[in-house]
Amino acid sequence: MEFFLNKIKEGVNKLKKLSGVVKIITHIDADGLSSGAIIIKALQREGINFSFSSVRLIDENVIDEMSRENCDIFLFLDLGSGSLSKIDEKLGDREVFILDHHKLEDYDSKKIFLINPHKFNLDGGVEISSSGICYFFAKYLNSKNQDLAHIALLGAIGDMQENNGFKSELNDYILQDAINEGKIEVKVGLRMFGMQTRPINKVLEYSIDPYIPGVTGNEGLANRFIEELEINATIDGRYKKLVQLDKEDMKKLVAGIILKRIGVEENPDDILGSIYLLTEEEDESPMKDAKEFSTLLNSCGRMNKASLGIGCCLGDKKSKNEALMLLNNYKREIINALNWYNLNKDKFIEENGYVIIDASNNIRDTLIGTLGSILCRSNLYGDGTIVITMAYTIDGSIKISLRLVGKKEIDLREVINNIINKVGGVCGGHRQAAGALIDQEKEEEFIKITKLELNKLVLEENANGKLLK
Ligand SMILES: [Mn+2]
Predict the structure, then answer these.
(1) Residue 315: which domain range?
(2) What is the pairing mode between strands 234-235 and 238-239?
(3) At 465, is the pLDDT very low, low, confident or very high (cuts 50, 70, 90)?
(4) Measured in angstroms, how far is the CA atom of residue 132 from the centroid of ligand 1?
(5) Residues 142 and 212 both lie in one domain
(6) Which of 64, 136, 177, 457 is least surrounded, with the fewest CB atoms within 10 Å of its CB?
């Protein structure tokens, strides 16, 4: 860990000695936008000139575009580690910094200043996200930037590095900074998504982790469950939000959920956990609870409004208002995507161990991963099923996304890598969520090869006794 932090310090010292215009390139997810927000604020404080853009994915076109930019210094945030040789080739004449936690291309560049935890035997999937790296970078640049620690937590949470607490010294350190700065307050409460914003019945119906047997996934049963608890759950005939329940009712609810889980779930009382509240945000806003905030950031990115997300991170009022409106549009689009899925359910390729959902022009390409994630959490497919969703992009490519139902010893990044090696295209991601971009004329070929590869994988799994169902 010390070597890793020293590497970051070294990067800061190198940047300090350089002059010229900086170009920041970030990924569009919550971690990428948090990374961008931290670095933008830090550069502003130093009076360094910069421009900024955000991308879904690094490919040759993006790097080509960058090479035409009139900039001296490039900062790649939350991406770039998989494209070292290409970046080296096209941007070798400029100063390039990569602050990223994704898996590395096996390539040794002398020119790129790469800060990546995997190089230091740290697990970038769990121990630190890119916004965490950017936070340390900013803090070493100027100790004032300690007031940005909470933004790094949004990125870490967005990248699923929080699971009933952070599981690494690095993330715990950032959390402590955020608490010391008075920006974050940690409370123990129900580990449920939407405490601040959603009506109770919806929170219960959609609660997958923790799972509530006989309630999760069923609107009628969720409503009946609330009735049976005999709590004061409504105001003016409408369901309250969880934060509006009084203490006694909250206790009844917690007890009721535990009762439902006894005998069915492994740890029935494992429903309470840390909740991270942003002290400066208003109650019941989607930016109060860090989990909801990171979801909001993801929506901004997916709706091609990255700068709004960054504005929200930096506390800009106008961005916040616009982002709230955007969130509503986003929800509407997700519902449309789910409706499309339901109408076309019988048309998808569904085999033992996987399903391929090709939405072509019917769903925005940036929503395809979200659709996959929702389908994985909805009890529609068996544990271990690989859910592949695809959609056309505006520039003639196809965006592909891989998600997994439940937890399983499978590396989706490796799976897509194998396929893309045969089909052509670019890919990246993590063990539990991976993606790719291919040309539209490769659609048929991609599906054919994916089927072959996955059938092979399922056979191997079966032979190993790890039955995919
Ligand atoms: Mn990330």
Answers:
(1) 189-332
(2) antiparallel
(3) low
(4) 9
(5) no
(6) 64
Q: What CA–CA distances, in Å, run from 151 to 146, 156, 276?
A: 10, 9, 12
Residue 326 resides in a domain = yes
H or E element that contains 223: helix 219-229
pLDDT surpasses 70 at 167: yes
Calpha distance 368→393 (Å, rounded): 11
Tell how far the Cα of 192 is from the centroid of ligand 1, in angstroms.
23
Same-domain check for residues 22 and 139: yes
Backbone dihedral region for residue 135 (phi beyond 0: left; psi -120 to 50: alpha; all else: beta) = alpha
CA pair distance 367, 52, nearest whole angstrom:
23
Residues 6+ apart with CB under 8 A from 147: 181, 183
Q: How many domains does the chain have?
A: 3
The rounded Å distance from CA 460 to ligand 1 centre is: 31
- Ligand 1 centroid to residue 284 C-alpha, Å: 27
| Mean pLDDT score, 347-365 | 95
Q: Are 241 and 199 in contact (CB under 8 A)?
A: yes
Q: Where are the beta strands (DSSP E) in 240-324?
A: 272-278
Rounded Cα gap, residues 15 and 43, in angstroms: 11
Q: Which residue has the tokens 């670019």?
A: 426
Long-range contacts of 203-206 (CB under 8 A, 24+ apart): 203/242
Q: Above pLDDT 70, what percent of the chain? A: 99
Q: What is the pLDDT of residue 147?
A: 98
Question: How remote is the CA of residue 434 from the centroid of ligand 1, in Å?
Answer: 12
What pTM did the predictor assign? 0.83
Domain boundary among 118, 146, 174: 146
Per-residue pLDDT tens digits for 291-345: 999 999 999 998 899 999 999 999 999 999 999 999 888 888 888 998 999 999 9
How far is the centre of ligand 1, averaged over its atoms, from the C-alpha of 134 (Å)?
A: 11
What count of other Cβ atoms lies within 10 Å of the Cβ of residue 255?
A: 12
Average pLDDT, the chain: 93
- For the chain, what's the residue count? 469
Measure 28 CA to ligand 1 centroid, in angstroms.
Answer: 9
- Give residue-wise pLDDT tens across range 50-89: 999 999 888 888 999 999 999 999 999 999 999 999 999 9
Same domain, 278 and 196: yes
Domain assignment present for residue 202? The answer is yes
The DSSP symbol for 402 reads: E
Mean pLDDT along residues 190-196 = 89
Per-residue pLDDT for 469 more than 50? no
Identify the pLDDT of residue 210: 84
Give every CB contact of residue 318 below 8 A, 6+ residues apart in sequence: 311
Q: Based on the domain organization, do 199 and 310 belong to the same domain?
A: yes
